[in-house]
From TrEMBL:
Residues 34-411 form the Major facilitator superfamily (MFS) profile domain. It comes from Collimonas arenae. One of its GO terms (cellular component) is plasma membrane. The chain crosses the membrane at residues 65-88, 100-130, 191-209, 265-288, 300-320, 326-345, 357-376, 382-406. The keyword Transmembrane applies. Signal peptide: none annotated. PANTHER family: FOSMIDOMYCIN RESISTANCE PROTEIN. This is Major Facilitator Superfamily protein. The lineage of its organism: Bacteria, Pseudomonadati, Pseudomonadota, Betaproteobacteria, Burkholderiales. Keywords: Membrane, Transmembrane, Transmembrane helix. It comes from the Bacteria.
Length: 412
């Protein structure tokens, strides 16, 4: 009788034991997959965006266009990307973030396939407009995916800093890869390969991003959700802080090659200097995101922006050797602030408006970065590069009281 009871109990246990097919991903695995997907999307999209810098001189020679038209080609991609982010966040409410992000990546890949076959300037311009439209989905949707999946378990700011770090890795690797490809194959073949890379990335995202039916994070169970304050004044201050930070960063990057040239740097020296700055910037996004989570947003912004302002002034007056030595540190401070600011967006977003808030923030920062080279370039024409650079350093100090206002809104 004991044997019969034991066998019956064993059979019941086997019937109720979870099989491999029935097993569901844990919260940790969902968070990991979401972060890997967002980082992959950021790396691919930022790489496809910045590879245009490598291709512009080739397109200028291929289509015999002016510098104004070169600027239009570059601006068409970034302008579409900035202008349609808010629309992408609204459409994600209806069709889902996952579908919109994958669809945008597919569109960016197809745009590069079209660009690789472009036989006229008109077709190339249309392809870049389509690419920018596809890229508009990435920043607001991938950021909100990271924020949503990490808020219940904690570590949102650290996860967003990893997400931002991945974008800089893409900016470094993909343009570098195309630069090597151009040595052995034509620009058309290189651009076509980038299109295939975009389509492959879309397939990876489709597989990686957890579906709505998967048990992502039960926020009611954990009780660790981030409740956005919905502070309008705090969000305005944050947006202005991010816009000024982005404007100074892009303005300084525009002046840097000319500043180096005035100190005697050649083409190789300018390339090395930019590499040192970008390497420091990539690690700055990762480091400062973690620092902001430890000591707070305001203290980190005051530290990074004050250091950036001081180092820009030093870059103007130091000799070439001294300037080259401090560029990694300048890159760390120059890029690091953005990760801290991104981490605050979920805390200021109103309930149910996280995607729109991210979209608004990215629209402002990208827009500020696009306008700054034009405005401060004009100042450089009138007063000289050193005066324009010092002006940028002074303007950056306005972010200090603005960050105090953001902190006040967070505390309220």
């Amino acid at each position: 009788m004991n044997l019969d009871f034991s066998l019956t109990s064993t059979m019941n246990d086997l019937k109720t034991a979870p099989t491999f097919q029935d097993s569901t991903p844990t919260e940790t695995s969902v968070r990991r997959r979401s972060l890997i997907a967002a980082c992959s999307a950021h790396a691919i999209h930022d790489g496809l965006t910045d590879v245009i810098y490598v291709l512009l001189p080739i397109w200028q020679a291929q289509f015999s266009i002016s510098y104004a038209m070169v600027g239009l080609l570059r601006g068409s991609y970034s302008g579409m990307m900035a202008g349609f982010q808010l629309l992408a966040s609204r459409l994600a409410k209806r069709w889902g973030r996952e579908r919109m992000l994958v669809g945008g990546t597919v569109l960016a890949g197809l745009a590069y396939l079209v660009a690789g076959q472009a036989g006229s300037l008109t077709v190339l311009l249309i392809a870049l407009l389509l690419g920018g439209l596809g890229a508009s989905t990435q920043h607001p949707l991938a950021s909100s995916i990271v924020a949503d999946t990490y808020e219940a378990g904690g570590g949102v700011k650290e996860a967003l800093s990893q997400y931002n770090f991945a974008g800089d890795i893409g900016k470094t690797l993909i343009p570098g890869l195309v630069g090597l490809l151009l040595v052995v194959v034509s620009w058309r073949a290189s651009v076509t390969l980038m299109g295939l890379l975009g389509l492959a990335a879309a397939g990876l995202l489709w597989w990686l991003i957890p579906t709505p039916t998967e048990p992502a994070l039960d926020r009611k169970k954990t009780g660790k959700t981030i409740t956005g304050t919905g502070s309008v004044s705090g969000l305005r201050a944050l947006l202005l802080t991010g816009t000024l930070d982005s404007a100074v960063r892009m303005g300084f990057l525009t002046f840097l090659p000319f500043l180096l040239k005035s100190k005697g740097a050649g083409t190789a020296g300018i390339g090395l200097a930019l590499s040192l700055l970008f390497i420091g910037g990539a690690f700055g996004k990762l480091f400062c995101g973690y620092l902001g989570a430890r000591i707070g947003m305001m203290k980190t912004v005051w530290l990074t922006e004050s250091a950036t302002s001081l180092l820009i002034v030093l870059a103007v007056w130091l000799p070439l050797v001294g300037m080259m030595a401090m560029l990694p540190l300048l890159g760390l401070a120059l890029n690091g602030t953005s990760s801290v600011l991104y981490g605050v967006v979920p805390e200021l977003a109103a309930a149910g408006k996280r995607e729109q808030t991210f979209a608004l923030f990215y629209t402002g920062t990208i827009g500020g970065g696009a306008l700054a080279p034009i405005l401060f370039g004009r100042l450089g024409d009138v007063a000289g590069i050193p005066v324009a650079a010092v002006t940028l350093a002074a303007i950056l100090l306005f972010t200090l009281p603005l960050s105090w206002w953001v902190q006040k809104a967070l505390e309220e």
